[in-house]
Amino acid sequence: MNYPQVALEFMNRDHAEFVTLLQKILDALPDDNASVVQLNDLLDELLAHTRRHFTEEEREMQATGFPPYPMHQGEHERVLGAMAAKISEWQSGHDKAALKAWLTGPVSEWFVNHVSTMDMMTARYIAACRSENPN
Q1: Cβ atoms within 10 Å of 108's Cβ, excluding its own
Q2: Of residues 97, 102, 109, 90, the one with CA closest to residue 30
Q3: Which of 1, 17, 32, 69 has the smallest CB count inside 10 Å?
């Protein structure tokens, strides 16, 4: 998946981890030996990782007084809600085709767009604030 690097290393690291988790799930989907439990665990890991990343990002936005914080944080809430709903949908139906379509379509598209726009701008702002106030 092609996505840009941003001005903050913690965000780049978290983005790479997200892509790795996403790929692990996609790799497990066509495997007939992949159990529902294994896929559930990977999906739970993706959701937990995303929550941790958003929490760290939001903490940095608040610490620097990032002006569009409410908009960015609202996007995080929307995505977490949608992700939790889709995971719940998967858990009740175990539809591998629907899960794959969601991960390769809306999730992947959102991720690249979010990193390229909101995260790019956010990282630049936070990095600039850190360089002005290195303590």
Answers
A1: 16
A2: 97
A3: 32
Q: Which of 81, 30, 31, 92 is nearest to 51 (CA)?
A: 81
Q: Global pTM?
A: 0.93
What does DSSP assign to residue 106? I
Question: DSSP string of 61-94?
Answer: HHHHT-TTHHHHHHHHHHHHHHHHHHHHHHHHH-
CATH superfamily of 9-30+38-132: Hemerythrin-like (1.20.120.50)
User: Max alpha carbon distance in the chain (Å)?
Assistant: 54
| Whether 47 contacts 84, CB under 8 Å | yes
- The residues spanned by each domain of the chain are 9-30+38-132
Residues 6+ apart with CB under 8 A from 84: 47
Instruction: Say what percent of the chain tops pLDDT 90.
Output: 88
